[in-house]
Structure formats: C-alpha cells, structure tokens
Amino acid sequence: MEPDRVVVDLERFLADRGDQLLRTAVLLTGSKEAGEDLLQAALERLLRRGPAIEGNPEGYLRRTLYHLAADRWRQQGAWRRQLRLLRPSLGAVAADPFAEVDQRDSLVRLLRQLPPSQRAVIVARYWDQLSEAESARVLGVSVGTVKSAAARGLRRLRELSDITRDPRDVAEREPTREHTT
C-alpha cells in the first residue's frame, strides 16, 4: 500500500475508533496523560508494522495496549520492589522535608563503600533504572556480571545499612535463636 493511503486509512480509523481506544488506554493506566502516552506508543508500533497488518488494525492496537500496559505495571512493580531494598521505609511519608536529603546522603555514603564495579552496577540498575541488558551494554560487561554484581552489591548495602543503624533496631528485626548444648 502506498504511504499516503496508509496515512489516510489510519486517520479515518482514528477518527472512528480513537476515542474508544483512548478510553481503554486511560482505564489501563489510570490517567489521561499516561493513557495518551500508552496509545501513542501503540500507534508507533502499528506504524512500524505498517503493511504487515491487513484489514482493521483495532485488534492489533488493543492487544498492543494491553501488552504495553502490562509491561509498565511489571516495570513499576519491579522498581518498587527494588527500591524497597534500598529504602525499607518506602511506604512511610517523610514529615521532615530534610529527611529525604539525609536519606539520599546516607545512601550515597553507603554506595561509596562498595567496590567500583558493584557501585557502577547498582547505580545503573537502580538509580538510572536501566535493564540488565542496558546496564551490561553501558558498562561493557556481560549480563551475568551485572546480575552477580547487583546481588553482591545489594547484599553489601543491606549489611552496611544494618551496621549504621541502631543495633537495637537490628536485633528487633532478627529472629532470636536459643542456644542449646
């Protein structure tokens, strides 16, 4: 199909079904702005596929909307879980506006205690929010190296953060074990 015809067909389709597709996207994301972004991303994929899609593209667009929304939910959920590793009190809202600055400062101090390779992986994965593959490419290492360095780095950060806390707080979180002889 010629490019002008594709554009005309897509414009006609969006004039007919665009509102319903946007409504679906808004319901999937929870906000109008995020829904518009989601629909835009789905339309970009549709345009890349172009001539490979025959007939009405609504099914392809709806399926793409659902898949993109599910990907975003997974990414957000994974990010929240990863963030909890660095900030156990994620759910608590800081009443003090300086508390967040103090917390960030303590995190940076903890990061500086890590070996450079672990620090680089932690920053790339959790601060810059890069995927394992993206982190590996940026750092020039394998994905396996990123995974192991992240695991070791997070474990070390937990250990270091436990050391800097009040020992009574750490003792309360750990189960007590009775010693029998």
What does this 3D model show about the protein?
With 181 residues, the protein is mainly α. The protein has two domains: 3-79, no CATH class; 94-173, Orthogonal Bundle (Arc Repressor Mutant, subunit A). The chain is 76% helix and 0% strand. It has eight helices and no strands. Helix 5 crosses helix 6 (132-139) and helix 6 (132-139) crosses helix 7. The longest helix has 29 residues, at 58-86. The radius of gyration is 24 Å and the shape is elongated. 14% of the residues are buried. Mean pLDDT is 78; it is low at 173-181.
| Overall number of domains | 2
**What distance separates the N and C termini?**
83 Å
Fraction of residues in β-strands? under 5%
CATH class of the largest domain equals Mainly Alpha
CATH homologous superfamily caption of the largest domain:
Winged helix-like DNA-binding domain superfamily/Winged helix DNA-binding domain
What is the makeup of the main sheet? none
Q: C-alpha Rg, in Å?
A: 24 Å
> What's the count of strands?
0
Oligomer: single chain
Q: Poorly predicted ranges (pLDDT <50, ≥5 residues)?
A: 173-181
SSE string, helices as H and strands as E: HHHHHHHH
Question: What would CATH call the architecture of the largest domain?
Answer: Orthogonal Bundle
Mean of pLDDT:
78
Structural category: mainly alpha
Q: What's the helical proportion of residues?
A: over 70%
Number of helices, counting only DSSP H or I runs of 4 residues or more: 8
Instruction: Enter the CATH topology name of the largest domain.
Output: Arc Repressor Mutant, subunit A
Global geometry: elongated
